[in-house]
Amino acid sequence: MEVVYISLPITGKDLEVVKARAEELKAQFTELGYKAVTPFDLSDNNVKTYGTYMGDDIRFIIDKADVVYLDNGFKSSQGCMLEYCTAKIYHKKRIYGN
């Protein structure tokens, strides 16, 4: 089963709206047969620095993801662009939102 990491803009957004979108995408990818993982799945809900959260996400993409899904608006998010660049450098399949 392929593992898909769901990348979506978070910083500066309504956190509850972003979490709902992440869960919606996770359900869609699960229906398609992927093991879907969001940034919220990688968080232990402790207060961490932005760099720590991003480090966890990048580590997951490098070590465990087969595919990175980049949601709408990813180009305007520094975190998503870092995830995109990581996926590209490490030759991960990329899927783009409409």
Structural class: alpha/beta
Rounded mean pLDDT is 95
What number of structural domains do the residues give? 1
Determine the CATH superfamily: Hypothetical protein PA1492
CATH fold-level assignment: Rossmann fold
What does this structure look like?
- This protein has 98 residues and is an alpha/beta fold.
- It has one domain (3-96): Hypothetical protein PA1492 (Rossmann fold).
- Helices cover 48% and strands 16% of the residues.
- The protein contains 4 helices and 4 strands.
- It has helices at residues 15-31, 39-42, 50-63, 78-89, and strands at 3-7, 35-37, 67-70, 93-96.
- A 4-stranded parallel β-sheet has the order 2-1-3-4, sandwiched between helices.
- Strand 3 (67-70), helix 4 (78-89) and strand 4 (93-96) form a beta-alpha-beta unit.
- Helix 3 (50-63) packs parallel to helix 4 (78-89).
- The chain is globular, with a radius of gyration of 12 Å.
- The model has no long low-confidence stretch (mean pLDDT 95).
List keywords for this structure.
98 residues, alpha/beta, Rossmann fold, four-stranded parallel sheet
Give a nutshell description of this structure.
With 98 residues, this protein is of the alpha/beta class.
Tell me the layout of helices and strands:
Elements: E1 3-7, H1 15-31, E2 35-37, H2 39-42, H3 50-63, E3 67-70, H4 78-89, E4 93-96
Parallel strand pairs: 1-2, 1-3, 3-4
